[in-house]
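Ops channel
N.P.: pipeline sanity check, posting one input/output pair.
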């Protein structure tokens, strides 16, 4: 059996459960008041816990794998691996200083005191940048530290920046970009490794599909070559003749970015009736 630790209740919980759902794994009882659940159709057990406990739980081999923010993985610094980057719950870890203070560059941070719940990441990142600071570790409400003169600056998670702004701070340096990651323990037994490979295969299919769209459009036959150059397709687009003489329907798969970047070119080439559909899974 494969044992997966996920956050019991927080920003990662729904997205972690959705990912399992997209991988075709349904959970026996969705009652999260319980600490454990089993999958109905995959040899998987789920442990629900605080995100901070997940790296230790994986390094102690209570769980084989876990889903955490990269920030938590790095700060806890356990002997575990990142098995897969998951792309959701993106955020950045940044330095914020009082908004009225002038800022010319990272050298302005030399010698200041910074309040944070991420002392290890902060120390590493500042060492890389050759700037010496004093770190004041606090576990919550980091943003209020400058206003109560506990520190000159803060280092914390930023997403929209509104928490910093509402505490009279401005973001001046991003030291780390983070996203949810699947972490795994070292030296997995072979049967557990096989189950993990199966799960990773499913996650890859879901990630490939999420990045792409199925596109369908109509075009005059003499535009087909030009449109096919714009739409590379998986191997080659499918072309089906329409009842209307001299016209065809072209079907292909396109990335979301390519779609928006090429929509004008498609129109200029004579495409009409352009439709896109989400793809549920893209297996190979
Ligand atoms: O209870 P438990 O310990 O399990 O949860 P938690 O409270 O420690 O974590 P949680 O659920 O808040 O976040 C889990 C993970 O989500 C984090 O470790 C990050 O990897 C990721 N994440 C993504 C975020 C945010 N975005 C985020 N905006 N984590 C926290 N925030 C907070 C941040 O702490 C700050 O207070 O949101 C505020 C900043 O947001 P903006 O939009 O105002 O800039
Ligand atoms: Zn936490």
């Amino acid at each position: 059996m494969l044992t997966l630790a996920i956050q019991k209740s927080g920003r990662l919980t729904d997205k972690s459960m959705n990912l399992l759902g997209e991988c075709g794994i349904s959970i026996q009882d969705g009652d999260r008041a319980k600490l454990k659940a089993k999958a109905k159709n995959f040899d998987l057990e789920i442990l629900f816990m605080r995100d901070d406990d997940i790296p230790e739980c994986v390094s102690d081999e209570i769980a084989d794998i876990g889903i955490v923010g990269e920030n938590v993985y790095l700060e806890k610094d356990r002997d575990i691996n990142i098995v897969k980057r998951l792309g959701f719950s993106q955020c950045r870890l940044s330095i914020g200083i009082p908004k009225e203070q002038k800022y010319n560059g990272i050298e302005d941070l030399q010698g200041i005191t910074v309040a944070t719940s991420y002392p290890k990441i902060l120390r590493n990142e500042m060492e890389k940048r050759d700037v010496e600071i004093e770190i004041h570790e606090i576990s919550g409400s980091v943003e209020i530290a400058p206003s109560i003169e506990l520190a000159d600056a803060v280092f914390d998670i930023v997403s929209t920046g509104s928490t910093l702004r509402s505490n009279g701070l401005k973001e001046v340096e991003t030291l780390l970009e983070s996203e949810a990651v699947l972490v795994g323990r070292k030296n997995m037994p072979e049967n557990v490794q096989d189950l993990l490979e199966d799960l990773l295969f499913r996650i890859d299919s879901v990630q490939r599909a999420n990045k792409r769209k199925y596109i369908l459009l109509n075009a005059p036959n003499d535009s087909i070559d030009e449109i096919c150059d714009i739409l590379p397709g998986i191997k080659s687009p499918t072309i089906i003749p329409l009842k209307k003489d001299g016209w065809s329907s072209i079907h292909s798969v396109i990335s979301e970015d390519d779609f928006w970047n090429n929509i004008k070119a498609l129109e200029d080439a004579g495409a009409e009736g352009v439709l896109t559909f989400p793809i549920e899974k893209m297996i190979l």
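N.P.: looks fine end to end. The CA atoms of residues 55 and 73 lie 6 Å apart.
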